[in-house]
Amino acid sequence: DGREIADGSNPLDAYLFKPQMLSQFSFNEENLVGNNAQLPLVSRAIKLEDSFEMGGMGYQSKAGSQLIYKVREENGALNIDLRRGSIRFWMKPNWSTGDMGHPFGSRVLEIGRINTQSSQSEGWWGLYMDQDRSTMYLASQAPNERQWHVHLTSDRLDFEKDQWYEIELNYGPKTVFAYGVNTPQNAQTFANSFLYINGIQRGSGPGIDPITLPGPEALAKGFAVGSQLDGALNVDATIEELTCYNFPQNIWNKVVVEDRSWAAETSLSPPMVRLSRINKVSAKGLNSVYIERRRLGEYEWRILEENYTEASWIDDDIQEGGIYEYRLRDTDFDNADFRRVTLTVGINLQPVHFRGNVILVSEAGLPQSLDLDYEQFKSDLTGDGWRLIELVAQSHNETNWLQNATEIHRIRAEARAVYERAPEYPNVMLLLGHVPVPRSGLEAFDGHENHRGAWAADSYYGSFDDDFWTDKATRLSRANPRLENRPNDKKWDPDYLPRIIEIPVGRIDFSNLHSFGGSDFLDLSDEKPWTLEVALTRQYLQKNHRYRHGLTPVEKRISYFNGLGFLPLNNGEFQAVNLASSLFGLGEANAVASRPLYENVPVMFGYHEMRASPFGIQLGWEYGRASNTYNHYTWHLNQAQNEPSILFYMMFGSWFGDWNLTDENWLRGVLATPNYGLISAYYPKFWKLQKMALGAPFAVAMLEMGDLTDNYRKAPRMLSIMGDPTLRIHPLTPPRAVTARLVNNQIALNWEGSTEEGCRYFIYRRHPAEGYQLLNDTPTEATSFVDDNPWFVEPKYMVRAMKPQSSGSGSYRNLSQAAYSNME
Length: 824
What we know:
Elements: H1 2-7, E1 21-25, E2 42-44, E3 48-50, E4 57-61, E5 66-69, E6 85-93, E7 106-112, E8 124-129, E9 136-141, E10 149-154, E11 165-171, E12 175-177, E13 188-189, E14 193-197, E15 200-205, H2 216-220, E16 223-225, E17 237-245, H3 250-256, E18 262-268, E19 271-277, E20 289-295, E21 302-308, E22 312-315, E23 323-330, E24 340-349, E25 356-363, H4 366-370, H5 372-382, E26 386-393, H6 401-421, E27 427-432, E28 439-440, E29 455-456, E30 505-508, H7 529-548, E31 558-562, H8 572-584, E32 591-593, E33 603-609, E34 612-613, E35 616-618, E36 621-622, E37 631-633, E38 646-652, H9 666-669, E39 679-682, H10 700-703, E40 721-723, E41 736-743, E42 746-752, E43 760-767, E44 771-774, E45 784-787, E46 797-807, E47 810-823
Parallel strand pairs: 24-47, 25-26, 25-27, 27-30, 30-40, 31-32, 31-33, 33-38, 38-39, 41-47
Antiparallel strand pairs: 1-17, 2-5, 3-4, 4-17, 5-16, 6-11, 6-17, 7-8, 7-16, 8-9, 9-10, 11-14, 12-13, 12-36, 14-15, 18-19, 19-22, 20-21, 20-23, 23-24, 28-29, 34-35, 35-37, 39-40, 41-42, 42-45, 43-44, 43-46, 46-47
Helix pairs in contact: 5-7
């Protein structure tokens, strides 16, 4: 229907939507046409006047004027969404607060007509003000009702005559938070509607209950701007830049207003970096910042600007191929890490042909059981520039800790030997299967007294400071023997990670997720735990392969939900918006305030901070949906229809961060779905992923945890990566069908090009002892290549596509996965 046309989504799934701008009315033309050629249904006694410094004209809504637009255009596209969205406009009143208006107040926006007497009505929706203009309300009324429902109240307002105000209304479905309760009636209501004036939150409310909205007859008559539909109860103000979105933007207001969201653009002729922030509060001006810069790898920052207040800034003292770090910090809060925005900016960076070592530690027997899927995974790693070092480990033994400790010591020693052979060479460790799990610590980062003790700590494998990992303390636990920590038991004391992690660690581990034995997407030969673990691992490697080869739909978007009101503002919310800007640029639909596990919005990163258990996280219950959607548990994910469309999970909640404490662990369970779920990470605020915008793998974020200077934000010991740490965010479709033929003592290569436009190609030949080596320093546009000096013993080649890639952090030359040759 029209909503799905507007959203670009599935009409069979009412909770799938595509965040986007719906309409914009700038009132710069006499015909009052919108950005998509929307003409008014009604326009009467219209007068335009010069707007403020943003330029253009404004619509004067005065007595006798009338302006109505369609709710839905003939092609089905919505101009305004009453269930979920945001509405932003500028208003210059012809009055001051306290000047008395009509006893029934005034209308800013309205659909339908409010009903107080009749038993039959079409319903109503309105944003309106009271008589003295000190309070603004959002309310609605269902058809045939006499009672209306207030969704938001903003009181004690103070408007001044002839002053411009930016007003933004954000609203979403009414939601309750069901923690320790059994029915929605006993649950706590979330604030899901917000009003901002000049970027400052001035009111909130519970959100929209869909059964309180007007019916189709009211919608068909359109929405009035600045009055009732009949022109009465006029707001008596000039209105400018009316913009409607289908998603709430309150996540942006808190961050943008305090200047936490910046992005970079680069150009080459001449080399230049432009840093920009969203100018949403231009009537008051932007906060002043210091702008500092250093080359990547340098320690000292150099101040380039002080007390800078513009929306963008240009740096032309740079070089092509350089990597620069910019720090933008408040003048008043320079000592707090969360008050600083750091961007890593690259200018046409050269392609990375060889990324480093992957120390692939597999659970004994798993490679043989995976067979061809394991070989394909190794080919994928090699084809992205990694050199493989394979190790085998015995399975974690849940009943024999000393056996685990011995195996952990051996694996770490072998990884350390790899590192020490070339300390400057990049390394990543990937644990495949139920490889023994180190444990460390005495305290509980989720605040639960009965969770104090030794938590899972994979990062120990990649940290080689033996003086740091002491084993002297005691922590007894009645809750779970795995939490107990005693002197000399090979469970370590530290609650935090050291400042330097030598090797990032990731884990692909589907042990003890028994509920997936009943899934509707696996074909299991028996009910043995090993059969299930192998099947889930195989499924993960296959979807990993599809993603790497550009076969998984990727939405350049981040969604965020904070259901923990006690978390300070330097948590995941700031990380989510800052990351969206650095990865994708400043588009407002790039970061969406949403329950990423609940509303089916396809996203690349889903940030979710909420009360939780070892095997689930709470979502809240939306009016109009079944009551069993209070929580999302691991066992819910064994049905394909319940799979969230999230590639990379960033989550915080109680218990599940200790990911090997119980069965059905949530942090690992989200990776067991058939299509999405490639990485999950605990405690979002510690993960600085901005370098992924320049082609870096997820693993790089673990190396940056020690760069924190705030002693109150030391990275806790359980932080490591669930999933494949070598994944990147810009998969490029590779070439296909590479053939190799011997012709006159030369090897002639041919291939089918990438399906993406603008690609060139690099060719690599395998050396018997040294692995693949690059044959052409300059990429070729052709889909053929001749090796005139080949190896004649088992000649093997691979071809990778290369394409320039831009992001919110600059530009680099991106490489695809490799396509391998077949000798004819």
